[in-house]
């Protein structure tokens, strides 16, 4: 059984590194911190290495221990959390140089790039997979671990609302609530609070929303100039893609934002319907994700990127 092998590798390792995807979200950071604290309960210290993350997650227990680099080059064990491909893994050199590697994830598009891969594409969050694993390992999930993992679940399910949410998710949430995890506070801090810069970015994005394909597609964008104008920081674009999906009749919401390399845009896509799998659409551009939420990186200016995406979207809408 894979989980026994994972436990064996953890027990055999003297040093462990935890890695996750670039521009980490609540599931990425929550899973990493939850895993770090759980490993301590097995008597193991682990380093989390994340280049940068949004300030909104600074309420998470032990986040001050997150490192941006490490002196250890060849870890005994590297564990990748919530990341579909090696390309998207932040600080992937630590993964590539590790003696043993494990991938734990919930993306259907996962490429199984670890020595051991534990991927459950029907799980709504990597954090929920960890809850199941910790239960199997008989690790006591305390309030700290629970807060980290519920943050992952809440951010990936939009507050237990997306169709990916299962009966298990509610059962885990109930169990965590009983343990003292403040679910309402997590929702408030991650889903119902935005920085002023983020609010200003949203205003610009709303102004530019175009409804395409018989108003079935909402499209909008943000440039580096916008980021600069409003003094935006890491994570301030978070949530903009959801604005378009709330418009009646919209089946796909598309939000693109300019990357540091001016010639490239990060595409975020959300589907409102079972009929359209945006992960398949993003796969065409070398990206991926989940049926209802996916992303990719596409080269060009706004018009060129829009054109490229809409050619593929048109095919999926009119099949
Ligand atoms: P985002 O639109 O960035 O919030 O991403 C939505 C979902 O798609 C998340 O689960 C991401 O992990 C996944 N995703 C985003 N971009 C990519 C990519 N380039 N390759 C694979 N998965 C991605
Ligand atoms: Mn994620
Ligand atoms: Mn996730």
Quick tags:
single chain; 319 residues; alpha/beta; inorganic pyrophosphatase (n-terminal core); Diaminopimelate Epimerase, Chain A, domain 1; 2 domains; 6-stranded mixed beta sheet; 5-stranded parallel beta sheet; 12 helices; 11 strands; globular; binds adenosine monophosphate; binds manganese (II) ion
Structure description:
The protein has 319 residues and is an alpha/beta fold. The protein contains 12 helices and 11 strands. The chain has a 6-stranded mixed beta sheet. Helix 2 packs parallel to helix 4 and helix 5 packs antiparallel against helix 6. One manganese (II) ion binds next to loops.
Short description:
This protein is an alpha/beta fold and 319 residues long. 39% of the residues lie in helices and 18% in strands. Helix 2 (26-41) runs antiparallel to helix 5 (143-156) and helix 5 runs antiparallel to helix 6 (167-179).
Q: Give the quaternary arrangement of the chains.
A: single chain
Low-pLDDT runs of 5+ residues are none
* Proportion in helices: 25-40%
Distance, first to last CA: 41 Å
* Main β-sheet, spatial strand arrangement: 6-7-8-9-11-10
Return the CATH class of the largest domain: Alpha Beta
Mean pLDDT: 97
Count of DSSP strands: 11
Bound molecules: adenosine monophosphate, manganese (II) ion
State the order of secondary-structure elements, H for helix, E for strand.
HEHEEHEEHHHHHEEHHEEHEEH
Rg, nearest Å: 19 Å
């Amino acid at each position: 059984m894979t989980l026994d092998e994972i436990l064996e590798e953890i027990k055999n390792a003297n040093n462990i590194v935890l890695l996750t995807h670039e521009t980490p979200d609540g599931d990425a950071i929550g899973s990493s911190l939850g895993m770090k604290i759980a490993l301590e309960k097995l008597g193991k210290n682990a380093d989390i290495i994340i280049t940068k993350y949004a300030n909104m997650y600074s309420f998470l227990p032990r986040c001050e221990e997150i490192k941006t680099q490490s002196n250890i080059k060849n870890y005994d064990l590297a564990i990748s959390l919530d990341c579909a491909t090696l390309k998207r893994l932040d600080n992937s050199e630590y993964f590539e140089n590790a003696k043993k590697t494990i991938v734990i994830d919930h993306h259907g598009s996962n490429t199984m790039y670890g020595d051991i891969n534990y991927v459950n594409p029907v799980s709504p969050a990597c954090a929920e997979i960890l809850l199941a694993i910790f239960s199997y390992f008989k690790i006591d999930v305390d309030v700290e671990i629970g807060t980290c993992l519920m943050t992952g679940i809440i951010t990936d399910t939009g507050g237990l609302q997306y169709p990916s949410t299962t009966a298990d998710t509610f059962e885990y949430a109930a169990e965590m609530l009983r343990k003292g995890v403040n679910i309402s506070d997590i929702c408030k801090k991650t889903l119902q609070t935005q920085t002023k810069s983020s609010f200003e970015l949203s205003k610009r994005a709303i102004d530019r929303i175009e409804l395409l394909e018989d108003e079935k597609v909402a499209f909008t964008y943000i440039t580096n100039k916008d980021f600069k104008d409003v003094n935006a920081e890491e994570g301030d674009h978070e949530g903009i893609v959801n604005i378009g999906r709330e418009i009646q009749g919209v089946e796909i919401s598309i939000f693109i934002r300019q990357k540091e390399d001016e010639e490239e845009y990060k595409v975020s896509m959300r589907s409102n319907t079972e009929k359209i799998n945006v992960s398949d659409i993003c796969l065409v551009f070398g990206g991926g994700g989940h049926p209802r939420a996916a992303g990719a990186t596409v080269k060009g200016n706004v018009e060129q990127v829009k054109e490229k995406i809409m050619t593929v979207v048109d095919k999926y809408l009119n099949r």
